[in-house]
Write a structure and sequence with these properties.
The chain is an alpha/beta fold. The protein is built from ten helices and eight strands. Bound molecules: 1,3-dihydroxyacetonephosphate.
């Protein structure tokens, strides 16, 4: 399967900065051997849609409403995202679980809504430092993924999963390739038990993936790409990671 390198810009950027970033990435991209996407702040979707039209980079959102339409102030629906060419929606990022109280059940419903709109959810799972130190990593990621499997049934083969250990996000601390692979193998087994097509589900690693460590992480058998925060804002670093996924 092709690997997927997805940037998550989080709450960074401006009209000027986005244009420069995307132009710099596109200038060095050529014909990538992997899939490439950027998850941009919702307010910049229109701008980025225009900048990315006809290019090899797909557009993503950082969230999607679990609701279809109506009185949900501040929410953005899947149908709205579709209108702006969104192919991927990140759901259940640890920052949304942590700062916005998103539960496993809500994340599962968001994934379901995305699938229903023809948007591929990038479902994030991952343990906190306290959970890892308590030996609960496997239990936590399995519980998070189980909710998504439970709600989405056989459609699960259409999702992307991102394993993002919370302690590795934005900290410069990366899971070693072996640590990441161990969790990825666990997630793969769980997906296989739920779907005969689990082999085609891309499992991304996220958490301080950068130009220096991407190749060794991406060489692991069950690491099918990366979800990149800080390094996705640096064109040369993002391009190096894309090259490492070839
Ligand atoms: P960093 O790459 O900045 O650690 O962020 C990872 C992440 O949260 C991507 O969604």
């Amino acid at each position: 399967m092709k690997k997927l390198i997805a940037g998550n810009w989080k709450m960074n950027g401006s009209l000027a900065a986005n244009e420069k970033l995307l132009k710099d990435i596109l200038a060095g991209l050529g014909q990538p051997a992997c899939q490439v996407a950027v998850g941009v702040p919702a307010i910049y979707l229109a701008q980025c849609q225009a900048l990315l039209a006809g290019t090899a980079i797909d557009l993503g959102s950082q969230d999607i409403s679990a609701q279809e339409v109506g009185a949900y102030t501040g929410e953005i629906s899947g149908a709205m995202l579709k209108e702006f060419g969104v192919r991927y929606a990140i759901v259940g990022h640890s920052e949304r679980r942590q700062y916005h109280g998103e539960t496993d059940e809500l994340v599962a419903l968001k994934a379901q809504r995305a699938l229903g709109c023809g948007i591929t959810p990038i479902v994030c799972v991952g343990e906190t430092l306290a959970e890892r130190e308590a030996g609960k990593t496997d239990e936590v990621v399995k519980r998070q993924l189980a909710a998504v499997i439970h709600t989405n049934g056989h459609c699960i083969s259409e999702i992307v999963v991102a394993y993002e250990p919370v302690w590795a996000i934005g900290t410069g601390k990366t899971a070693t390739p072996e640590m990441a692979q161990q969790v990825h193998a666990l997630l793969r087994a769980q997906l296989k038990a739920a779907s005969e097509h689990a082999d085609r589900i891309q499992l991304l690693y996220g958490g301080s993936m950068n130009a220096a460590n991407a190749a060794s992480l991406l060489a692991q058998p069950d690491i099918d790409g990366g979800l990149i925060g800080g390094a996705a804002l640096k064109p040369q670093d993002f391009l190096t990671i894309i090259a490492a996924a070839a």
